[in-house]
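Hello,

Following up on my earlier ticket. Below are the two sequence lines again, exactly as submitted.
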Amino acid sequence: MKNFEIIEHTADIGIIAYGKTKEEVFVNSAKGMFYILTEEEETCKNKSSYQFKLSADTLEDLLISWLSELLYLFETKLVILNKFVLEEFSDYNLIARVYGENIGHNNKKIKREIKAVTYHYLEFKKDEVSKLWRARVIFDI
Amino acid sequence: MKQSWDGPLNKLDDYRWEIPKNYLSGMRVPGLIYASSKLLEQIREDQAPEQVANVAFLPGIVGHSLAMPDIHWGYGFAIGGVAATNLNNGVISPGGVGFDINCGVRLMRTNLTYKEVKSKIEFLVNELFRTIPSGVGSKGRIRISYNEMRKVLKEGSKWAIENGYGWEEDSLFTEEEGCMKEADPVLVSDHALERGKPQLGTLGSGNHFLEIQVVDEIYDKEVARKLGLEKDQITVMIHSGSRGLGHQVCSDYLVTMQKAVNKYGIHLPDRQLACAPIDSPEGKNYYAAMCCAANYAWANRQCIMHWTREVLARVFQSTPEQLGLKLIYDVAHNIAKIEEFNQEGRKVKLCVHRKGATRAFPPFHPDIPVDYQEIGQPVLIPGDMGRFSYCLVGTELAIKETFGSTCHGAGRIKSRTSAKKVVGGRDIQKELRDKGIIVKAESRGTLAEEMSEAYKDVSEVVEVMHQSGISKKVVRMRPLGVIKG
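Thanks for your patience. The regenerated structure is below:
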């Protein structure tokens, strides 16, 4: 199973993230978003960690909130996140601890900016053939 | 994901194409696309026309769901779209403004001529690149407290000018005089403030730029003279927006609007169009927060222009005043505004969403500067970094047909990934240098993504607006030096 795929959109860029569980889709969509930012998938040292709690009305909305929160951390703490632990998870709530390394350390470079996570073409569903969960998200860059 | 659109388009004349109201059940008004036959072929290559039809579902929309010739596929609204809604029963939609609230352009004149700067372009570009923070995650040179940030959000350009970043007269030559009065910083989240605080006075990345240009063609000598422009003269164009602050405001209110759509029973074909009645608490709060982000963007461009003046003064061993570094105008091209129009003989206030569209008010409109009353509002249209940019003026016809709006730029035709594929091993920086354009960017990736072939030809876009009478060409500028994020 691939963790995620990058998809094209005229003005923007998106991902399809896969997972055996919904939680795994959340983790892989986060990895996909940081791949778009850095164009790298390798691991970095987990020097800083952040914990947060989110809630939303639907699973799709929770995914948007999750990625938006990670984008906020990236931009304000200037940190590239690469380990995502969902300590608690339901369709409407999550508690997460995420780990990463500051930009600038270890020559970490940012390739492009993501302005925001959009609702455009948003999808979160289970593929009945592969039995895998998948989510599609488009970013505004 | 690219998929061509083969829906119905009725030709009204050479530059106007209508999507009939009966195309989708739920459309409240027809769609209207401004394009030449050639541009229309490109427009049909993706789903932007479908988005024009989708916007026609918005409650309270009046006239047409409009699209300018630079239209391309966005999220929810197409980029290059205009929608006006009634204040009584209409909605306001953050998707109709975009994430980069008050992304916009300003144009500054100089007394310098091409001959005088020719040998100094590279030095000038390096100095500007060193002085003006650009690129992803760049931090600005301005250190302010959260309290001071709230003043920026409330006052816009005025804050920048009062704090030494500019001249008193600059705000007069800025749309809304650089400040939307309805701004209420209380309605901006801590997340948005945190993202915006370190980024004030930064250019950003992607398609944002600062360009040294030369006036290369004059179409209307008289209007150009009134703007203080003549052939071979040097100008500076700045394209930037509200940075992380605006992005966060839009993200925050999209969540609010998703709930509002259910609360008010609004039926929409795309979640990204989420909206709320203008007079509802959700609608009012979004508008007040959007005004804050718009004000931040004006302060941002004001600071960037101030440092540009300082660099020019240093490089040419003069003063900004002696160099005649006067702001010609500053326009917003991602914004929603409450504006007054005549509808069936009555004056009505409408909420005009311009998402990748520029206000283009005619001569004698009360909202344009006194100095420009006779010529109309300057409209600034940036092209891609290898071709031209334009200055136009608004017309009376724009008021009648497009709620005083026109195009905003070239419009993307290639996705960023496919642009990179086309570039392959080409050296874009060298190719531009061979054409006489010095470009300095934070990342090589940006140069590939932003190459000319990724965009429509801005000259064709501008020609449609000129020929259709929506705005009139005044001058064309050619890039000499560009800094990008």
